[in-house]
Design goal:
Length: about 475
C-alpha cells in the first residue's frame, strides 16, 4: 500500500481527483502517491493566494520575517523525518539528504537577515525622491527534482518576505518532501499566503499561462525555460529563470594533483552530477593531465555508489527514468564514436544507476562535451595554451558557473574575469551563499536568485516624489 500525501491550498489539506505515482529511484518501485492537480485545483490555489495578498502585503516586514523563521524552525525540527523521505524520493544518500533539509531551513532564516532598501535618488531643497520596492502579487514557483527542498526555499523565502503570496509546484518526480513541508508550515502563515500543489507534466504549462500570476520563478532545463518565457510573454509576467549549464573548470599545471583531486571529483559528481553548477567539462593542462586523470579514475573506482538508504554509499542513482535513459544514450554515443571511457566501480543491477564515468580527452565537438549530461559522466580535456582553453571553455550556449584551479591566485583571478559565466570559483566549487546572487549568462538563465538582488526580483520599483515646503 503506497503512502498518500495532500496539497496545501488556502491553509487546508486538499486532495485531487487523480494521483501520480512516486518511485524510489534506487529500486524503480512505486512507494507513494501524490495529488495530480487539475485546472480547477490551480484556480482554487491562485484565488486563495489572490485573496491573501492584500493583507500579507500590508503585514509589517518584521512579522513576515518572523513567520519565515518559524517555518524554518518547523523544518529543522522534522529534519530526520524529511531526510528519510528525501532519500526515498530523490535517491541521494542520507547525509546529503539531511544536509539539504537543514540547508533549506538555514537559507530561509538567512533570507530574513536581508532588508528591502529604499533608494533615495534625490534629496534637495525642493523635494525628496524615494524608490520603494513593492511586492508584485501572486508568484508562481516551479522547482526541479535535483534539489527539491533547497531550491524551493530559494523561492519561498524571498517571495514571501517581499510581501507576495505564492503557489509552489514541486517536480512530479520529487513532490513528497515539499508536500510534507506544506503540512508542517500550513498554520505558520495566514491561509492562502503559501499554497503547494503537485501534478504531472500538464500542470506546469497551466501555471505559466495562468493570468492570475504576476511572476514566474522557474528552475529547470533551458529547453523548458524557453517555453516558460514564451508563455509568460503573452501577458508580460515577470520571470526569473535558473536554467542549465555546461560548466567548465580549468586546472593549471601548478596545482598539487593529490591535494585537489578529491575536490575536483566532488565538484563534478556531487549528487551523482545532478547539479546545475557542477563541473561538466574538466580542462586539465597537459603537464599534469595523465597524473590527474589516473587519480580521478581511482576515486571513481573507490567511491561506493548505491541505494542512499544503505550506510556507506557516497553516490546515489539518477533521480528518474527519463534522465537515466538520456545519460545511457550519451554513453552509447560515446562508445559508438570510439571514445575512451574510464568507469568506476560496479553499481546495483536494479534502479537508475550509472557508473561514475570519465571520458578520456574526447574531441571538443563530441556530444559528451557539447551536451549537459546531468549525470555521472565527466569529459577530461587536455590543453596547453591559456588563450585556447579560455576560448574552448566559453564556446558554449551556456554560462552558469566555472572554476579555475591554480597555485597562483592572481593568475587564476585574471582567467576568471575572462570566463563568460555568472559565477566563477577559484580553488573551490559548488559554493553558494544566501547573500550572493546566482545568475546565468547566455542561455543559462534570466534574472538572479539570492542576496538582495534576488530578493528584489520579487518586487517592482515604485518612485515617490515628495515635495518640500518652500523656506
Amino acid at each position: 500500500m503506497s503512502e498518500t500525501f495532500a496539497m496545501t491550498i488556502d491553509g487546508r489539506a486538499v486532495s485531487a481527483a487523480r494521483t501520480i505515482d512516486v518511485r524510489n529511484p534506487a529500486t524503480g518501485e512505486i512507494f507513494a502517491a501524490a495529488p495530480d492537480a487539475d485546472a480547477a485545483d490551480l484556480d482554487t490555489a491562485v484565488a486563495a493566494a489572490t485573496r491573501a495578498f492584500p493583507a500579507w502585503r500590508d503585514t509589517p516586514i518584521a512579522e513576515r520575517k518572523a513567520a519565515l523563521a518559524k517555518a524554518a524552525d518547523a523544518i529543522e525540527a522534522h529534519a530526520d523525518e524529511l531526510a528519510a523521505l528525501f532519500v526515498r524520493e530523490q535517491g541521494r544518500p542520507l547525509p546529503g539528504a539531511k544536509m539539504e533539509i537543514l540547508g533549506a531551513a538555514m537559507w530561509m532564516k538567512a533570507t530574513t537577515m536581508l532588508d528591502i532598501p529604499v533608494d533615495v535618488t534625490e534629496d534637495s531643497d525642493t523635494r525628496r525622491i524615494e524608490v520603494h520596492h513593492v511586492p508584485l502579487g501572486v508568484v508562481c514557483g516551479i522547482v526541479p527534482w535535483n534539489f527539491p527542498v533547497l531550491l524551493a526555499a530559494w523561492k519561498v523565502g524571498p517571495a514571501l518576505m517581499a510581501g507576495n503570496t505564492l503557489v509552489l509546484k514541486p517536480s512530479p518526480f520529487t513532490p513528497l518532501c515539499t508536500l510534507r513541508i506544506g503540512e508542517l508550515i500550513r498554520d505558520v502563515f495566514p491561509a492562502g499566503v503559501i499554497n503547494i500543489i503537485s501534478g504531472g507534466d500538464a500542470l506546469g504549462p497551466l501555471m505559466t499561462a495562468h493570468p492570475g500570476f504576476a511572476k514566474i520563478s522557474f528552475t529547470g532545463s533551458t529547453a523548458t525555460g524557453r517555453r516558460v518565457m514564451e508563455s509568460a510573454a503573452k501577458d508580460l509576467k515577470r520571470i526569473t529563470l535558473e536554467l542549465g549549464g555546461n560548466d567548465a573548470a580549468i586546472v593549471l599545471p601548478d596545482v598539487d594533483v593529490d591535494a585537489v583531486a578529491a575536490q575536483l571529483f566532488e565538484g563534478a559528481f556531487h549528487n551523482s552530477a545532478q547539479v546545475c553548477v557542477a563541473t561538466k567539462r574538466l580542462y586539465i593542462h597537459a603537464d599534469i593531465y595523465d597524473a590527474l586523470r589516473d587519480r580521478l579514475h581511482q576515486l571513481a573506482k573507490d567511491l561506493p555508489v548505491g541505494d542512499g538508504a544503505e550506510q556507506g554509499n557516497r553516490y546515489g542513482p539518477i533521480q528518474n527514468e527519463p534522465q537515466y535513459r538520456r545519460v545511457l544514450a550519451l554513453l552509447d554515443d560515446a562508445r559508438a564514436n570510439g571514445l575512451t571511457l574510464l568507469e568506476g566501480g560496479a553499481v546495483p543491477d536494479r534502479g537508475y544507476f550509472v557508473p561514475l564515468t570519465l571520458v578520456d580527452n574526447p574531441p571538443e565537438d563530441s556530444r559528451v562535451v557539447v551536451e549537459e549530461a546531468f549525470g555521472p559522466v565527466l569529459p577530461l580535456l587536455k590543453f596547453t595554451d591559456i588563450d585556447d582553453v579560455v576560448a574552448r571553455a566559453n564556446d558554449s550556449d551556456y554560462g552558469l558557473a566555472g572554476a579555475v584551479w591554480s597555485g597562483d591566485v592572481e593568475a587564476a583571478t585574471a582567467i576568471a574575469h575572462r570566463l563568460d559565466t555568472g559565477t566563477v570559483w577559484i580553488n573551490q566549487n559548488l559554493q553558494s551563499t544566501p547573500f550572493t546572487p546566482l545568475a546565468g549568462a547566455k542561455q543559462s538563465g534570466f534574472g538572479q536568485e539570492n542576496g538582495v538582488p534576488g530578493l528584489l526580483e520579487f518586487t517592482r520599483p515604485k518612485a515617490i516624489f515628495i515635495p518640500k515646503a518652500a523656506r
